[in-house]
Predict the structure.
Amino acid sequence: RHALDRPGRQLGSLREERSFLERYLTLEQMRFGERLTVEREIDDGLLDAQVPNLILQPLVENAIKHGIEPRVAPGRIVLRAVSPAPGRLRLVVADNGRGLPPDRGPGSGVGTSNTLARLAQLYRSEGSFRLEPNPGGGVSAVVELPLRR
């Protein structure tokens, strides 16, 4: 429904993206119960930033499917939005899951390859996407783009 309400719109505000993501996370938290904790570290001053529609949901879905779901122990997802430098926006979806298999990297799955393609189309070399191992285990999906309001 979210996508159908925005035909042809490639970008929306981070506020809209967060609102959609909260509805998705509500369903996932009902499914996983206490096995899933979500932390939000989103700078309120960035909520009017323009981001690609539905950029975060597939990354959260991947974190749950590949990082949290296979574990027996409780899982945690951290959503982060910061401006690491003037004119830049960094979006991070981090999990404490099992980590990235050695043969997997950005672009090797459907969600990550779609993310890479969308960023290249919208931002050319100004946008980037990478997967990083977290020091305590798990993976961080990191999207960097120009900060536009």
Q: What stands out?
A: The first helix runs from residue 14 to 32. The mean pLDDT is 90. The CA atoms of residues 82 and 90 lie 5 Å apart. The beta strands are 11-13, 36-42, 50-52, 75-82, 88-95, 128-133, 139-146.
